[in-house]
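Usage

Read records sequentially. Each one opens with the input sequence:
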Amino acid sequence: MAVAVRLGRFLPLGRSSAPAPRLHSCAVGNRGRCVPWRLRGSEVMGNPGAFKRSLLFSALSYLGFETYQVISQAAVVHATAKVFRIEEILEQADYLYESGETEKLYQLLSQYKESEDAELLWRLARASRDIAQLSGTSEEEKKLLVYEALEYAKRALEKNESSFAAHKWYAICISDVGDYEGIKAKIANSYIIKEHFEKAIELNPKDATSIHLMGIWCYTFAEMPWYQRRIAKMLFATPPSSTYEEALGYFHRAEQVEPNFYSKNLLLLGKTYLKLRNKKLAAFWLTKAKDYPVHTEEDKQVQTEAAQLLTGFSDKN
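and closes with the structure output:
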């Protein structure tokens, strides 16, 4: 991880080096022509008061311009410092995320929860959700964190609708909130979730996780229990639906974009092949999931589930 670049390397500490403004070399005549500006001796000596006022006006104009330059430079320095500060925070946040330091990451980003920077806000939504997913988090705390994460993701999207990550995490957080709002809300939200995953993929076709999440959406509705399908048909004229083949396409596409990027994608490839009754390919992907290096609690859970499914193969054989 690159060390954040310090502000002092780029910004001058002294005053602006811009040249001082020059007095106009001509004046506009009564016909609109530019004519030379002359101050003849008789004119100066004949009206010393006017001459003094002219000098005073010129001096004040110059000082006013210099003040404007200083204020402008200060504003630029302040704005640039703010940008560099946010960049530094984001670098720290990404380092902690990659290191699996979930709690430290949340503590860092929580200090900036009033920020209006979309990049910071969607990371805070992700961090809040990750804390909610920890095994040591109580059910009460988890619910609070899930709704908190949704609020951060919503603000990130409001600040920058062109951020693929804001769309992705907004969809994820809406999905999480559905667990607390009943089947009707969950099904209604599924349309919104799909829309934002598709937008995230459109904005960044190389983001493997957005593609993977679209695969989960398809897998979820492919295996929806019959009673939920019945409820969906009662509530909506065209309820959401999908197939295992469609889900498989997204999981493979994610793997093509970034091979072995996520243990759960390997697991779901194996589980989808199981649903399609292709045990040979199911065993191949489940073995890859079981052997995936453990970095997070989720990796550990994936490894355990993959091993159990593979054991089930052995028992049946």
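Summary fields computed downstream for this record:
- The two ends are 48 Å apart (CA to CA).
- The chain has 13 helices and two strands.
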